[in-house]
Amino acid sequence: MNQPPVLINDTTLRDGEQAAGVAFNLEEKVAIAKFLDAVGVHEIEVGIPAMGEEETRAIQAIANLNLQAKLLAWNRAVISDIKASIACGLNRVHICIPVSGVQISTKFQGQWRITLQQLRDSVNFALDNGLWVSVGGEDASRADKNFLLDVALFAQELGASRFRFCDTVGILDPFATYHRVKKLVESLSIPVEIHTHNDFGLATANALAGIEAGCLTANTTVNGLGERAGNAALEEVVMALKRIYGLDVGVDTTKLLDLSRLVADASRCSVPPWKAIVGENTFAHESGIHAHSVLQNPMTYEPFSPEEVGWERRVVVGKHSGRHAVTQVLEENGIKLNSEETKSVLEAVRQESVQKKRSLTTQEVLDLVQQGRYSHAIR
How far is CA 332 from the centre of its chain? Predict the structure, then answer.
């Protein structure tokens, strides 16, 4: 099978679960891993083995599934972390070290040489045990550019197979992301991975900028779940690559909605209705002008068909509806009104919608017709 142009490394089970208030149990972790694999995600970051027995049991259960997706665990540059990953039956590890001044100052009292020593010792230990190794630069977006490059080159020299650029606190814009990542890509002979956070709402845009700069792997989470404001959303990155860049990464997009719902249920974090790709309103049309146009030609107000991501198109009747939307709803239910009656129902719909502060259900619209007792209604 040909290698896709960009690999999706999903970290819902690691960085996603680190969202405040989220805790997956073993069954949920296994279900999410199996679904990620089923839709064609290439790599799954399954967790942090060093967290303890409950975490390792879940990781071992996933490892025993023999999924097509490659599994890797997240580790600090600490040998005991690597040992914990090995004990889970994994043969791939990600080793993360801080690279910004603020991170090194806080975690290593500013002694950057110790950081590099720990990286060397942990990478060597992992390689000596036959592991595939990825190295990540934590807070790379705030690191001195020359120091970041030195660390990445050092990781490559040690034998790492990939380097992860982490916008840990989500401070970059796509332009800065592109230029910083481009320098790494041009300087390294190993692939670069992009990991972005959404603190300014730019995680997906920055992930795409990293890919445009030459990253061959994107780190994502389902629904953008993650610490603080979250991460780059799997469904957004995949669909943007497919539709904006023309890159099919091999993920079955028709199952994205079901995957989103699984993670939403497991995380107890509901998806906002306006959320891109998987939000309930993504293919819902209420505005009179929009609904009328979509009924004639969906392409007028939809960038791609709802079926492509597991949705169905909905014409919603509410405050902003026009006669065409109301007429369609009524005719679908065997009711035909004349022009004046339709106008009267539309006015009632708008008033009711404002009062209820939402769009109306089909039954509520039919109730309004019944209340009006229109003589020409045929059911």
Answer: 36
* Rounded CA separation 95/98 (Å): 10
Comparing C-alpha atoms, which of 278, 288, 301, 284 is closest to residue 204? 278
Q: What is the DSSP string of 207-262?
A: HHHHHHTT-SEEEEBGGG--STT-B-BHHHHHHHHHHTS----S--GGGHHHHHHH
d(CA 338, CA 327): 10
pLDDT tops 60 at residue 152: yes
Tens-digit pLDDT profile for residues 261-291: 999 999 999 999 999 999 998 877 656 556 6
Q: What are phi and psi of 354, to 5 degrees?
A: -65, -40
Both structure tokens of 245: 């860049």
Give dist(CA 214, CA 210) in Å, integer.
6
Rounded Cα gap, residues 93 and 106, in angstroms:
25
Give the gyration radius of the chain's Cα atoms.
Answer: 25
Quick one: 156 exposed, middle or buried, by C-beta within 10 A (0-12, 13-18, 19+)? middle
Contact between 188 and 159 (Cβ < 8 Å): no
CA terminus-to-terminus distance, the chain: 56
Enter the DSSP assignment of 15: I
Q: At which residue do the structure tokens 């995957």 appear?
A: 259
β-pair partners for 196: 167
What's the predicted TM-score (pTM) here?
0.88
